[in-house]
## 1
Amino acid sequence: MTLDPMTLAAIVAMAVVTYLTRIAGLFAAGRIRLSGRAKAAFDAIPPAVLVAVIAPTVLATGWPETVAALVTALLATRLPLLATVAVGVVTVVALRQFS
Amino acid sequence: MIGPIPREAREGLADIVPVIIAAVPIGLLFGALAAAKGLSALEVGLMSLLVFAGGSQFAAVELWTQPLSIATLAFSALLINARMVLMGASLAPKLSGFSWTQRILGFHLLTDEAWALAERRAGSRPVTPAYWFGLCCLLPLAWVGTTVAGALAGSLMGDPSRLGADFAFTAMFIGLVAGFWKGRVTAVTVAAAGAASAVVYVLAGPPWHVAAGAVAGILGAYLAAPADAGQAAA
């Protein structure tokens, strides 16, 4: 079990930066009042970020991932979250057999 | 156990269960990848505990070279996690009955998943400390535990993509996006964010695709939403 000083420094640097992003919103919150288009833009943050994180997997990996993502998306509004995950994983494993 | 667990904490615990299940294979995978780059199980566990942000941890392992560039790793973490500034700002006004200590400590536990679930909860009920800490207390344990286990197991696991484990987070994020669906504006957001992220990923590589996709999606929503009277003041 080793703990390299440079590795520890890197981990601490990442941790400090990450923690600052987590609490920064607490201090900004009271000063943000939004309506109309600005509110629509703010409300779009969650889906925009979630889609931005997964887009390379969905669109730039292979057709099984793209098709499995489409199948998952079609069922996502009708199924609970865990069932949605299960359908997605099963679909991608099945499709990869043919790729 | 002193007394019964409050109902709201139980509801938080129940809400996070699918996330925990989806996180297990991802944690094992992260640990195995980090071990392959030369990190010890202790270092993997420390990173999972202190950074506690899967996306930036994967990116860090991707960027892990000898000698280490601490500035590169910190900047990558900043780019990938910058979204949490906006997420925190969006969630903070919806917190109910939090002391400042609870906010400052509780927000170390802020993750995409906990935040998305808390936002969903805020649509119908207040987000109380009992709910938030119920929601957030298990994921760090699961994340540290599975990443350390992955580092210890290392190459014994084989290829995780064989089991589709690598797709679990993608499917979960799709499910979470569905929870935010508000019709046409959301459709434009998803299309713009997806296209921009994929293009930037191919052309510039990670971590730029996250920032590019987020900005494009937010801009798309702004343009797709009807213009309002208060626009002049903006």
## 2
Amino acid sequence: MQTHHTLKPLQRISAMLIRYTYLLRNSWPRILELAYWPTMQMILWGFINQFLVTESSWVAQAAGLFISAVLLWDVLFRGQLGVSVVFFEEMYSRNLGHLFVSPLRPHELIITLLLISFIRTVIGVGAAALLAIPLYHYSIFAIGLPLLAFFANLLVLGWAIGLFVISIVLRYGLGVENLAWAVIFAVAPVSGIFYPIEVLPHWLQPVAWSLPSSYVFEGMRQVMIENSFNLHLFLMAVGLNILYISLGILTFLAVFRVARIKGLILNAGE
Amino acid sequence: MNTTLNPDTVIHVTNLCKQFGEIRAVADISFQVKKGSTTALLGGNGAGKTTTIAMLLGLLLPSSGKISVLGQDILSHRYRVLERINFTSPYVDLPGRLSVRENLNVYARLYAVPNRAQRIHQLAEELEIIEFLPRPHRSLSAGQKTRVELAKALLNQPEVLFLDEPTASLDPDSADRIRHYLKTYQQRTGATLFMASHNMVEVERMCSDVIIMRHGQIIDQDTPAHLLSKYGTSNLEQVFLEVARHGS
């Protein structure tokens, strides 16, 4: 009989990362799809940006305002999908039973999902950002260090939403998987991606200010138009993200327990 | 949970119940499984076999009762046990887009199997799946998948192997080879096999103990020979039909 080792969490997390890398490697349409949508969005908003620069004094204040906005929005969008779609793969393939009879802990699966989401987002949005340089002579990387702060905050919010989505799908089954696409679009109008929050009706503004994404996009405009990094906006985004990612993790762990009570793990995917 | 059980007992179930709303899937069952034995859980559809196995694995939380596997309370110390057990079930599958080798490699890493490549090759040879290693799992037939999933279940050389319908999708020749392989594995390692099966010939050939379930309850538990004698029948299929239709 095999000698039993104290299995290390990092080994299990790397095993799962390898599993998702295999999945990407074995399917070139998946790799293409990672970059396709962010690139199409960037191209569309790049032309809109070019047009509005000549028509709007507000847009003219900063080159590439809309390109930056759409690329950062895609960080949030892809961050969320990176968690949810990858988890759905386990449900489609009815693999959850095998995974949770192995020594893999639920929190290790969460860490893996977040890491793979980061990798997918960097590939997808990174390709689109690089393509914007020859296409529109605009580099989002010119934003400098604040770009890292914006990227991190939007990615973490994407993770939090992704964790809520997979919790709901684990609880109610793949019949509600369209939530993965729908939920994020409810966040978009109140995040001030392309316009200041003050444009929103007064009653909707508190909703906007409860989202880290609103602080990020306001902060992005301040950096691009006024050339100043607003620390207050950054800290508000960080504070709210800590709250939401904690709630996302706790929700998933709670639903995982419910799934064990209701026998949903063996039936997942059916 | 008493962790100083008889060292010969690897599974100890006490007053186990599982309720799904109004439905009582498992109703106050208790049993013990000895180390190195092969125990079959017999019963018709909906008897509670898969629910019981899912609770033994910790995939499903019981409504009440206690489960000890390898001396550990599965409810509070599940992760001390998981690296020492494994399972196959027709209710779960491996990722279809990954090749067989990739799937086995991922699970070998999850179980921290030493000399992964060697272990995978050894199992692939023994279970005659070498030619399938580079192929996507989804491209295999049901019987081929069964053998691959058995290889996955044996990667960590489990001390207790849970098998839910282990030969359900196999032709008679393949099923016979698998049964022979499992017996050889058990003799070599001293592992305990715990299986749910509808295949009475398989149970008669492989099992030293049989637990018969009906409507979530244990109707009878004994050796195959004693059951045949008790029910006055010549084979377990007749015992199964007797119990399924009339109870104990």
## 3
Amino acid sequence: MLNRIWFWLLLIGVCYAPAKAIVAPVLGIDLATVSPETGEVVPPPSIADMGKEVTTAAIDGAKAAVDLCLSLIGPMVLWLGVMQVAKDAGLVDGLAYLMRPLMRWLFPEVPNGHPAQGAMLMNISANMLNLGNASTSFGLKAMQGLQELNTTEETATNSMATFLAINTSSVTIIPFTIIGLRAAAGSEDPAGPLFGIFLATLCSTCIAVLAVRTLSKLPAFTATAPAPPNAAALATNEEGA
Amino acid sequence: METFLLISETLSQWMIPLVILGVALAAKYRDVPMYESFVTGAKEGFNVVVMIIPYLVAILFVIKVFLASGLFEDVRWMAARGLGSIGLEAAAESLELMPLALTRPLSGGAAQGVFVDLIQPKENGGRFGPDSYIGNTASLMMGSTETTFYVLSVYFGSIGIKRFRHTLPACLIADAAGLCAALFFGWLLFT
């Protein structure tokens, strides 16, 4: 799926602008735009300029990705350290114990007391409080835990899909970034949408869980599902926990 | 309102120190050797991030190229023309939210740019302002959706998963649900 999406994004990205420049005159459409500030007519960019723009975009994208990763290293190391301390203090297991029934229902493949359970809960909590980098660190840790339970190398398990669906639709209690941006724009009521965001994310999380469960039962996806982890290994794991 | 803002601002600034302090206090209470345990946990951080780089470059570069093509602006322009020609100019206003809805799953930075542009107040040359229907609904949309492609490539990249199975459709359905919910609550609460 991603292979196809990747190809089409690339194809459209490279070909759309030049194709438009060639087809539009044939159809008799004028591509010149009127600049809103000066009222002057701006001619459409030349095909050479378009090439330049696509090149810049490609290089910028690659650079931005690496910059992003580099800027993630510091917070990542910090939060994984904090998480280890929280774990050794028994906080993570305490949280996992409280949420056990919910986690059992959402992630039947993850045995109680498995490290992935605690890390997923930390990630969801950090998401609710809008802790940005912290939630990424906990989330990646959770993915490592889920990968331990994966019987294949490169295929996503149902637990991973459920976790990511919950993650991308996460219930937000305090969206600090949005409040900040609205305050910066001079809003009279920067926190106005807070309740609306809570309701909307609640809806989207419910639908995410519903969607991921329904999709996982479709024949096309059950056929590719990794085999469940070895029952004997699970049993020893639970005894250990 | 003033006091609420002040509390929210203060809380947002103190959230991270307080969380870390809370963890340290609990560790102290349980007599955990925290320095050692911090270092043990932190060791893994570097490798995980380096592992993500190729996955993230692959996805971000192709998304940048796609956004640079200008397809989104043309789709919005055509949809606005279409709605205008059948006499639905009022609905055409909501189309101003479309670039935000479409860029959000692809790129957090680009979506934030679109969002800030939508909530610019009129006196700063903006078109809607943060407290307008569009500004408020855009805030709901920002809050209720995620940069799905980025999250999936980072999370799966960190453990080397290449076949996502039903994850992407499920996440996109969740995003679409978030957007619809945002539009609905925006209409309910702000018109």
